[in-house]
Amino acid sequence: MSRPKIRWSKLYSFSCIPLRRAPRHAQVGQRGYSRVVHCNEPDNPEALQSNYRGNYVSTTKYTATNFIPKSLFEQFRRVANIYFLVVACVSFSPLAPYTALSVLAPLVVVIGATMAKEAVEDWRRRKQDIEANNRKAEVYGKDHNFHETRWKNLRVGDLIRVHKDEYFPADIFLISSSYEDGICYVETMNLDGETNLKLKQSLEVTSSICDEVSLEDFKAIIRCEDPNENLYSFVGNLQYSGKEYPLSLKQILLRDSKLKNTDYVHGVVVFTGHDTKVMKNATDPPSKRSKIERRMDRVIYVLFSTLITISFVGSFFFGTQTGRDLSDGKYRRWYICPSDTTVFFDPRRASLAALFHFLTGLMLYGYLIPISLYVSIEFVKVLQSIFINQDLDMYHDETDRPARARTSNLNEELGQIDTILSDKTGTLTCNSMEFIKCSIAGVAYGRGETEVERAVAGRHKDSDVESFEIYTDASGQGQVVDTHSYTRHVKGFNFEDERIMHGQWVNEPNHGIIQKFFQVLAICHTVIPEVNNQTGEIYYEAESPDEAAFVVAARELGFEFFERKQMSLSMREIDFEKGTKVDRNYELLHILEFSSTRKRMSVIVKSEEGRLLLLSKGADSVMLERLSKDGRSFLSDTRSHINKYSEAGLRTLVIAYRDLGEDEYRIWEDEFVNAKASISAERDALIDSAAEKIEKDLNLLGATAVEDKLQKGVPECIEKLEGAGIKIWVLTGDKMETAVNIGYACKLLRQGMKLIVITLDALDENHEKDMDKEAVVKVSSEAVRNQIQNGISQILSSKETAASFGLIIDGKSLNFALKKELEDSFLDLATRCASVICCRSSPKQKALVTRLVKVKTGKTTLSIGDGANDVSMLQEADVGIGISGVEGMQAVMASDFAIAQFQFLQRLLLVHGHWCYRRIAMMICYFFYKNITFGFTLFWFEAYASFSGQPAYNDWYMSFYNVFFTSLPVIALGVFDQDVSARLCLKNPLLYQEGMQNVLFNWPRILGWMCNGVGSSVIIFFCTTNAIIGQAFRGDGQVADYGILGVTMYTCVVWTVNCQMALSINYFTWIQHVFIWGSIAFWYLFLVVYGFLTPTLSTTAYMVLVEACAPSFLYWLSTLLVVVSSLLPYFSYRAFQTWFKPMPHDIIQRRRKWLEISENKSVNKNEKEDSGELPARVKNKLKHLEENLRHTRS
Questions:
Q1: Which of 934, 919, 917 is nearest to 1058 (CA)?
Q2: Are residues 889 and 192 in contact, defined by beta-carbon separation less than 8 angstroms?
Q3: Measured between alpha carbons, how far is 40 from 191 in angstroms, rounded to an integer?
Q4: How is residue 913 annotated by DSSP?
Q5: Where are the bilayer-spanning segments (predicted)?
Q6: Cα angle 117-122-128, degrees, rounded to a multiple of 5
Q7: How far apart are CA 372 and CA 378, in angstroms?
Q8: Gyration radius of the chain over CA positions
Q9: Among 41, 181, 232, 559, which is least packed by CB within 10 angstroms?
Q10: Cα four-point dihedral sign 832, 837, 843, 845
Q11: 547 assigned to a ligand binding site
């Protein structure tokens, strides 16, 4: 195969992804680093003895053999299901008040439905596994040719070939590629979600092994780390041709990443199957349960307690009555033949009979426990998640990404959020950098105005309708410029300044420095240029948006980087002496890459004139201290500009350079090359040390400022969320000035808000250096303590509300504030403030703050972020929201819900969260109501029948109650009900307070529904018995018997609970009508069909409707009167509540109806709506709610 003649050996001096330090190569062979791979010899006896895993992968939860036992175990972890299983088992004994089949059938239906759902989901995963395991791969065989095989057949040590756009079937050691120097491009979206390509490179010693002949002779041994989940490090050695070579992640191609822009690669399988890094990372996220679900478990325990109580009461009275049947040798109730009975009714052993009756009662009153509750809730939550996924108002056109509910367990939790903890970059902002300003030779360039500057101008009230700024040119003369006159045409470039654009920089006094400044931007990077053959346009493949913005800015200002070769960079620029464009080539000697610890990057190049240059860019905190004495000419002005840029919310980098002498460079290069060749544990430290020695005595050129714009709709979204009473904290790694001004721009901080700032910057650094570490910690801790106490005192002594305060704290102070002795006072201060911003926060600090708020306040927390550094915060919060943005998909993969833009959060919470909370809360309460109504009619009947254990209803009536006659309406409630429309939810964010205050599922509300159920059962039983017992029921004058009484009571129960549902629903659809009235109709249909069965099967239901109930006027009249009487208490309560103590949604509904009436009376309804006044009662209620909210937040 032909190979491109490009060598990249010296392009990357550091490893491609040096994000984490790990124990290095000196540990190979020790514990944790014991894997041995025989390259191209998978059948080597030593390799066979290692018995490494195969490449077969399974992501399923179950197998064919363990599905039934494991799935049953999962189902019976729920206490309610265990109870029904025990009841079903005991129902085969004489203790059961009904037949075993009537109890077993509903349990089988419920458990079977849940298991079927699990099986379907697992089968989908199984099909994905089958597809992946049977993909084709090319393996080098014993006949020295490549043959196709399936992924699952690969073994450790196999030599394989992967072609362009194919996925890697295992973790592979890169031997060579279609490029002569062994480089290849890899897309790792399936691993970390990042879309930018990663550059991998083989060892130079193996890069020439590319054809079948050379592959035949390739035999080597890899000794490396054991399988682990760390995606960003690899430790190992290659023993080849008698020499040992250190390996890094640079030479490892991970499973499920894809080969891009490279025709083919050769490699050796190192890790297979579940030993690969991607599979090691395939762990389930932390299990989260909503607060409603946890409270529901406690309510179930209350129902169990009620069940035991009424069973005990029944058995007590039964034992008392049975014991009194035998008195002085005479039988009191002789008509039930107590002298000829079993042990269950023996008056001579009344205590034993009472014990058996207690067990019977536990089964009889088991209908208090809703058997279908869990499966119904699961089904409803899945449908709710589908509605969230399909909401077009949360679909982002630009990225083609809809909202996604990654779990359905937390839908209702979205409606109870008290505190939002948000990342900034990529979450509130776009993470799409635009070059907007720069400072060169102490002169500020760039006429653009950022969103933050506009917010600051509004805050200081010194900006007019049109925005103008005064810029100082090199001569010191000010000029007024219209800052709104420019338009942006190029992605990543939003710069406007006629002094240096269109080649005018050559007329500037410091044109030489300006030239060097943009040369550094055009050369100091790792960007790869790609030319569109059709249009001739150049596109840049960059590792970060910042780098792309710098290269684009240099191009737009006349310094176009257009080609990168094996050891050179080419750019096209204007020769200011000749005034023409010239191509300049620079020999690329070394690249010292950027890392989070170095905070800078440098390149060493040689110009066409033979000058050795070190070009560097980095954070001001590390760059300014590396300037030479002669290179600080305009340090003061540059530092001032950097501070102003930070205040404007811009990200800054310092640009510098230095000339290198030949002797200095040669000595340094020897040390640097030796450091790279080292295989000791100090290898990275040696490389860093060598880099430090050359990156010094720099000459300052200036600074860049790029803007990360706020996402669309962020200020409006924050304003809505705060209007709902939700507290918002921002946890960011940015500087304090940047974070504060972004806070003002997004309306997190408001004009007139007093800021409480906690920082340790005020400590005297020189004094700090004189103290030992322990003394510094003590002084810093005390300083933070004093600032926290002063902040609390300031709020308490202020006449204003807490909503007038904002808290700002930096990362160093946060370390001390999160200590055990200060965390309570810090949280007390933070919760008294309307907004909190934590600056310079590390990922660990973000997670600790989230945990502190969640645990100490007991309120529901939500974390939202877009990057890998936000994962721990998302998993720590009650609800984690991932933004599918520029930084990849790691946050999304660790989240519970995913959205494309922060602005969609208001709809997710205020609409879907509000609806889901209401639906689930009402659904559960209604479940308890209908089961208590039904269960207590059994208790009243048993009391009426001397606690004999006789059920009031036919066995199959009771079995089908929860499954067929009352289940569908409550599911429709959980899926479709709306108290108000989505538009009104967003227009009236105060509605969200219902969920925050948990007004629909607190104990008074739950007990109220339970009492309603008990009351309904009392009305149904006593009204029914008094209405039909003793009266002529049939046409021939016969009175109602046991079967007729049971049917009549059951009919009243079915009508009452379904009509109660109709009263509770706020938003009717045809589905609700079908389910509610269909359930009632199905009861009559069931009676007809079941009544036609033989008496041995239908027992008391034989022809009971057709022959007895349907022809009787008393049956229908009793049903009507009893149902109306049962519903009257709830109807009266709701009428009173709506008029005198309305809930927020009641007020909104009345407001909407009043406006509709006003519109109908108006000729022009739009004019009427604008001019209409709300009724005084409604206005007063809205005002009262707003005052309550302010009082709660203060």
A1: 934
A2: yes
A3: 27
A4: I
A5: 79-97, 103-120, 299-318, 354-375, 920-941, 956-976, 1006-1030, 1042-1063, 1075-1093, 1113-1133
A6: 140
A7: 10
A8: 38
A9: 232
A10: negative
A11: yes
423 is catalytic: yes
Express as a percent the part of the chain with pLDDT over 70.
Answer: 84
| Angstrom distances, CA of residue 191 to CA of 253, 924, 1049 | 11, 40, 61
pLDDT at 328: 63
Query: Rounded mean pLDDT of the chain?
Result: 83
Burial of 463 (0-12, 13-18, 19+ CB in 10 A): middle
For tokens 């000697």, the residue is 589
Sign (positive or negative) of CA dihedral 471, 477, 478, 479: negative
Q: Residues 128, 129, 130, 131: is their CA dihedral positive or negative? A: positive
* Residue 1005, marked binder: no
- Look up residue 1049 and give its two tokens: 């009571």
Pairing of β 699-710 and β 264-271: unpaired
CA pair distance 207, 250, nearest whole angstrom: 13
pLDDT of residue 791: 92
Sort residue 817 into left (φ over 0), alpha (ψ -120 to 50) or beta: alpha
For position 1006, what pLDDT does the model report? 93
Q: Are the C-beta atoms of 1100 and 1043 separated by less than 8 Å? A: yes
Extract long-range pairs of 813-818: CB within 8 Å, 24+ residues apart.
Answer: 813/758, 813/759, 813/760, 813/780, 813/784, 813/787, 814/838, 814/840, 814/841, 814/845, 814/849, 815/845, 816/780, 816/781, 816/784, 816/785, 817/758, 817/784, 817/788, 818/845, 818/848, 818/849, 818/852
Gap between the Cα atoms of 254 and 229, Å rounded: 11
Q: What share of the chain is helix, strand, coil (3-state, %, to 5)?
A: 50, 20, 30
Q: Nearest CA to 382 among 971, 1070, 982?
A: 971
**What is residue 467's predicted lDDT score, i.e. its pLDDT?**
35
Q: Give the model's pLDDT for residue 234.
A: 84
Contacts for 743 with CB less than 8 Å, ≥ 6 apart: 730, 749, 806, 835, 837
- The tokens of 85 are what? 């299983």
- Ligand-binding annotation for 651, yes or no, is yes
Length of the chain: 1194
Residue 510, annotated as binding a ligand: no
b or e along 180-207 (b: 16 or more beta carbons within 10 Å of the residue's beta carbon)? bbbbbbbbbeebbbbebbbbbbbbeebb
Q: Cα separation of 1073 and 377, whole Å? A: 20
Give dist(CA 98, CA 79) in Å, integer: 22
CA 86: distance to chain centroid? 39
Query: DSSP assignment of 940-970, as one string?
Result: HHHHHTTT----SS-HHHHHHIIIIISHHHH
Q: Say if residue 431 carries a ligand binding annotation.
A: no
Determine the Cα–Cα distance for residues 444 and 495; give it in Å rounded to an integer. Answer: 12
The verdict on whether residue 600 carries a ligand-binding annotation is: no
Paired sense of beta strands 136-140 and 159-163, if any? antiparallel
Question: Annotated catalytic residue: which of 181, 275, 325, 423?
Answer: 423
**Numbers of helices and strands, H then E, in the chain:** 40, 37
The DSSP line for 297-332 is HHHHHHHHHHHHHHHHHHHHHHHHHHHHTEETTEET
For residues 1043 and 1101, is the Cβ–Cβ distance under 8 A?
yes
Instruction: Tell me how far apart the terminal alpha carbons of the chain are, to the nearest angstrom.
Output: 73
- pTM recorded for the entire structure: 0.76
Burial of 534 (0-12, 13-18, 19+ CB in 10 A): exposed
Give the phi and the psi of residue 923 in degrees, each rounded to 5.
-65, -45
- Block residue for tokens 């002949």: 213
Low-confidence ranges of the chain (pLDDT < 50): 2, 4-26, 462-488, 764-766, 1163-1174
> What would the pLDDT profile of 890-919 be if each residue is shown by its tens digit?
678 778 899 999 999 999 999 999 999 999
Q: φ, ψ for residue 839 (rounded to 5)?
A: -95, 160
DSSP helix/strand/coil, 876: helix
Can you read off the two tokens belonging to residue 131?
């597809």
C-alpha 541 chain-centroid distance: 29
The 8-class DSSP code of residue 225 comes to P
